[in-house]
Amino acid sequence: MENAHIARAFRQLADIMELHGENPFKIRSYQNAYLTIRKFPEPLENQTPEDWDQIPGVGQAISAKIGELLASGELSAYRKLADQTPAGVLEMLGIPGLGPKKVRLLWKELGLESVGELAYACGENRLIEVSGFGPKTQKEIEEKIRFYNQTKNKHLWKDARHLAEETISWIKTGWPDSELVMTGELRRMAPVVSEIELMWTLPDLQEWPQTSPWQVEGVEALWLEREGYPRVKVWKAREATQGRIMWISTGSEAYVGHHRMTVARLAPGVSEADFLDANGLPLRDPECRENPEWAKLFDSRVEPLVRPSDIRGIIHAHSTWSDGWNSLEEMARACMDAGYSYLVISDHSRSAFYANGLSVERIILQHEEIDALNDRLGSFRILKGIECDILSQGELDYEDDMLSRFDVVIASIHSQLRMDESKAMKRLLGAIAHPATHILGHMTGRLLLSREGYPVNHRRIIEACAHHGVSIELNANPMRLDMDYTWIPYAMECGVKMAVNPDAHSVKGIEDMTFGLAVARKGGLTPSACLNSLNVDELLAFLHG
Q: Does residue 31 belong to any structural domain of this protein?
């Protein structure tokens, strides 16, 4: 069980306790446990209860619940309250941004016990009858319901991959001679996965399962439906047909259907390359097979897609100087161990008080530590960066003389996220135009499946970045992956470099580069258009030249 799942269990416990009006001190302790555990860099399942006790804000009571969760898969305190709660009310708790206090009022005062009833009540203008609610709140709840209905039963690519890996292990316990690989949206590197698909190759003499939890779908597919898990589509293949099945299952229906009409027959092929060659089909990267129009964007590409080996350094990472878990030196040495040659440390600026943002005095002290570390780390370099808040009118969070001290300035919005397009564009364009800005961070502020981004005009922002020589971040955190990959081709056309940045808050967070690079490839990013494919001297020359 990953730390994210453990943390989520504590958040759910805090929410359901608040829903039932339980002890507020215990609720706060579980909320704090959620915040602590979700960012803790080491896997808790690999540690002892004594180790957990030493984590700030955990203690013995929380430690005991971590042990219970790892042993049984759930918390008895949560189960007790869940058994007293209508299933539809629990689902209402899952609507991002609604919150247990509002759900409690809607349940207890209006008798609403499902998402459908809540949507209907909004349509009848009934929420304004509840104390503390008004037309504006009702409209916001309608928007949250719309977003929830669009995103439920979908998974972040990271979570879908984890579920696919677990399913592969489960299948191989019963069929050890089989081969399984991920396909569908997972292989196409979709940031959000609506259906988990695998290709299962069995030796000719072995039989496919025919009974529960398996459901047969025609001659080519099975559905695996296990209690407590999302449904998984499994494509059936024999050695002679696996190339054909891999091609059919990887591309979207639109992409596969488009090419099916152009070939006379779908000949078998042991490998996908064999199958493509036999049918005169283009040998395109799986990431590009989203639809025929998207694939055409890559037809004239000469340069290969960016690869992990192209990345020279890590840009955008946090340390204990702000809200990170690891020290500057620990972050630097983790980058060295991973084969990178530089690290742009970019802790939060002073307005981010919630993240221990850096005052001017603390910046000076941090820069002194960076200088001392650079003297000791040989050829590896730590660059002096900052993730500088974009304030309400588009200003940056420090005066110009302080901004000039940084090697790299990443300008990002973290506050007042409820903006219309006019307000968002004013702030973003103002920051882009500032001479100190080098990189625009997580452009829309979105959190996939949790929060919609504020509305922006991507085309205008990209063109402004091109005009002012500002690069754009592709934030590699699997919940962000922002800027959206669909705009990478236009950024490249305009000559804007993309920075694939992990936004790491711990040494483990550096691994999020995997997700950023996957989506960068899906957008067609090449090494020459990737900012962190430059070595440290090239990077500084590009930013300050």
A: yes
- The reply to whether 475 and 419 lie within a common domain is yes
Count of domains for the chain: 3
What does the alpha-carbon distance between residue 363 and residue 513 come to, in Å, rounded to a whole number?
Answer: 27
- Containing structural domain, residue 164: 155-296
The per-residue pLDDT for range 160-203, each reduced to its tens digit, is 999 999 999 999 999 999 999 999 999 999 999 999 999 999 98
Query: Is the domain of 367 the same as that of 405?
Result: yes
Tell me, what CATH number does 284's domain have? 3.30.460.10
pLDDT in tens, 472-505: 999 999 999 999 999 999 999 999 999 999 999 9
Residue 301 domain-assigned (yes or no): no
Same domain? For 409 and 495 the reply is: yes
3-state secondary structure 53-110: HCCCCCHHHHHHHHHHHHHHCCCHHHHHHHCCCCHHHHHHHCCCCCCHHHHHHHHHHH
Question: Contact 150/194 with Cβ under 8 angstroms?
Answer: no
Phi and psi, residue 179, nearest 5°: -120, 135
Q: pLDDT tens, 240-293?
A: 889 989 999 999 999 998 887 655 566 767 899 988 888 888 888 999 999 999
DSSP state of 286: G
Torsions phi, psi for 236 (to 5 deg):
-90, 130
Which domain-ending residue is among 117, 135, 151? 151
Q: Are residues 115 and 190 in the same domain?
A: no
The model carries a pTM of 0.89
Exposure string for 270-304, b = 16+ CB within 10 A, e = fewer: eebeebbebbebeeebbbbbbeeebbebbeeeeee
Residue 160 lies in a domain: yes
Residue 201, SS3 per DSSP: strand
264 and 381 share one domain:
no
User: Which region, left, alpha or beta, applies to residue 356 given φ > 0 means left and ψ of -120 to 50 means alpha?
Assistant: left
Return the pLDDT at 412.
Answer: 98
Q: Report the percent of the chain where pLDDT is more than 90.
A: 79
Q: Which residues pair with 382 in a beta bridge?
A: 343
Kindly provide the residue ranges of all beta strands, DSSP E only, lying in 202-278, ordered along the sequence.
214-217, 221-224, 232-237
Q: Which two tokens stand for residue 216?
A: 């047969």
